[in-house]
Model the fold of this input.
Amino acid sequence: MFRIQRIPSISPLAILSSRVIAVVSALVVGGIVYSLRGFDVFDLGANVIDSSFGSEFGVQDLGLLFSPLILTGLATAITLRIGLWNIGGEGQFYLGAVFATAIGLFVQGPDWLILILMFIGGFVGGMLWILVPALARAYLQTDEIITTLLLNFVAMLLVYFLCTGPWRDPHDTVTSATARVKAEMPYLFGDLHWGLIIALLLAVLVAAMLAYTKWGYEVRLAGSNRFAAFYAGVPVRRRLIQVMLLSGGVAGIGGMLEVAGTVHHLQGGMSNNFGYLGILVAVVAGGAPIAVPAAALLMAVILNGGIVLQSYGVSTYEVLALTGLILFFVAISEQLAYYRISRPPALKAGAGA
Amino acid sequence: MNDTEPAATPARVAAPSAPPVVQMQAITKLFPGLVANDAVDFDLRAGEVHALLGENGAGKSTLMNVLTGIYHAEAGQIMMNGQPVRFGSPESAIAAGIGMVHQHFKLVRAFTVAENIHLGWHETPKLVSPALLESRTAELAERFNLAVRPSARVEDLSAGEQQRVEILRVLARGARVLILDEPTAVLTPREAGELFKALRGFTARGYSVIFISHKLDEVMEISDRITVLRAGRNVATLPAASTNAVELATLMVGRELHPPQATGVGERKLGNIVLQLAGVAALDDRGLKALTDVDLALHEGEIVGVAGVAGNGQRELTEVLTGIRDVIEGQVRIGGHVMSGADPLAFLDAGIGHIPEDRLRSGLAPAMPVATNAVLREYRAAPIARGPFYLPAAAMALARRIVADSAVLVPSMRMPVRNLSGGNQQRLVARREMRVATRALVAAYPTRGLDVGAIETMLRYIVEMRDRGVAVLLISEELEDLIGIADRIVVLFKGRIIGGFTAAEADPERIGLLMGGRVAEADALATQPTVS
Ligand SMILES: Nc1ncnc2c1ncn2[C@@H]1O[C@H](COP(=O)(O)OP(=O)(O)OP(=O)(O)O)[C@@H](O)[C@H]1O
Ligand SMILES: [Mg+2]
Done:
């Protein structure tokens, strides 16, 4: 007879290994299903790995998915630290892109200056897009999940309006997009730009701020028990607002980098759902900013792998199913990690259970 | 480890042949770095109240958590009516008839009483309406003779009412063994009396009770047998009739105890006013008036005791005095300076410490490490902070110091604070607040949940602070403690201060009458010539 027992707290190592086990098990289950469908799983797997890491192009593609996912993931993870959910990364990403594009198109100056202005603009754009939900949350206790989510749709429509209306590039008759933004992010190699480094640095910076500043202590305390934080003298309301603004700003930087480094103009649908995927990244990272890059990389490999799989005849649905499976397993593992199976000391069949 | 009576012998009870209802044999429970229960034997007979005594952290709650399947022992076995059992969860324990009411209530605060009673219960009908749940709850309340209001929300209930809901919840599920973990810590004396009556009715039906408490007189009153734990071991199991409070205290602590002396009461000169309320009125969380026209001044070097039945505005009084709650009328002054608005930080900066009445909800972040909680009030300044930075290593060092000063056994400062025993959490909060209370300490039930030795230490600390010139406001239901150490006592009734006494003229009988709001009778007592 085995017993299952929930233990109250577990080590970071146990959390990490549970994630790894979850991803591997999801791949095994997915692999079995794929092979039943007649695919050569090992061949497919090798192709995914090879096309993600095996060539310079693969690494570039991966990197271009990786950086925005870090930033949108970070945006949601930051709010989780204070016990809130920013579901509006998508909208803030778009607004960051809008502000950056406006600066890139309409401000004259040397490229380096324009890039700095675009960076600031992206941050401010994202912040402005979450300002109302943040104030509503702090002063009226309005649920931020709903307000941030709804603003995503507004942002999406705003971008479509700008791209098909006032900012539309008259020379481009095929797509609805703005003219090309001249200033470009410097490149690491190939198409892969410095946005990746910026994103990684931001994740480390945010994690360090939370762990090693008074501000971060206050945020963590307020996220754990708001009453106790208020009692301790933490200006809880101000911290809520600051954290939400920072979160929006980070997502906005994601949009700015996408414009300045990858897409080079504003275009409807350019967010690629990065904002929503960022929520998943934050969940997989367990809400810890320092774990966001790892989770974002996993997500990037899944997305990139999906593209590869499709080119081998795997349907979109099967790709999505595998993606869902991985996330599903990770989410379950988060709970299961708290349980232990143990064998009781020698005893005849118990009456309990 | 059973000096006085071999636990395995089911002797001297009504039905000597029947095996004990519950028998725990050589239970050992380990936590990382700590032996919480060390080969403990414990047995419970039909129809008895068996009290469990021991210092904070002795392992009482843990032993009961093992019995109800929340924890699993590393060694030992449990028998019910002579059959070995093993519970995987509290649900299977309750299915076997063992129910527990925890030290910290586990009700869903936003739900009604009826909803809480029916939550996670297999007998709850599949299709429910509030009316159905409420009528079922009313029936149950009648059957078990426990007065509850089925449609009330739990967050609006007094501690005594919440506890009745917890007990009803357990009894409704068919418990024949009821475990109560420090049930009277949060009850008024009257509520405690009602609880005891209910318990006697319960044992009269042949059911059994395990009763954990630090109040020795209560234990002597209600229990048939008493088991004392010390540092995780069973040091004695005795019939209540053959022991006394002094012997029990000595067994628990391993040494004799001395009650604190009142030092220099009455003679001392009062210092300046530190903290003052002038004509204060305040609302409670529901927006009802909780304090009315309160005038109160705390001077340097005095202990002002607040007597009163819990729920008469004590919470709001401590909160306006520490900047957590706004007043709607009147002024709060610190050293003559009028404070504006609720601003806990300003009060902290002025040197006012606060031991809140509900430590888990407002004084601690239960899920965060001991270290994080220990520095809650001091993280802003050196050595914990340098400029804008927070230094985890310095926080760890301060936490170790506070933990050592409060004589709490904590294997790791990284452990979540909720893993500390109830009394140890209280010690930690108290110690932390005493450190920052350089001018005034506002202490709500600071000895709640503490063992007898720790109460002695706590009261001594408070007296020492007073002697150093700190102003202390001490809220307590223990009239004896108040009269023992306070320089002045005021009585709080329905949000008003309806009486003030110096230590010399404090008369328990008069204060008792005032606590019940019987002003006229109290005045009549006062006019009689005193014979002293
Ligand atoms: N989940 C846990 N993880 C680690 N240590 C624990 C855990 N639960 C309890 N302990 C430790 O076990 C010891 C016994 O705790 P327990 O709660 O049983 O004490 P207690 O006798 O009920 O004390 P009190 O009178 O203060 O309530 C304490 O030192 C406590 O810190
Ligand atoms: Mg306990």
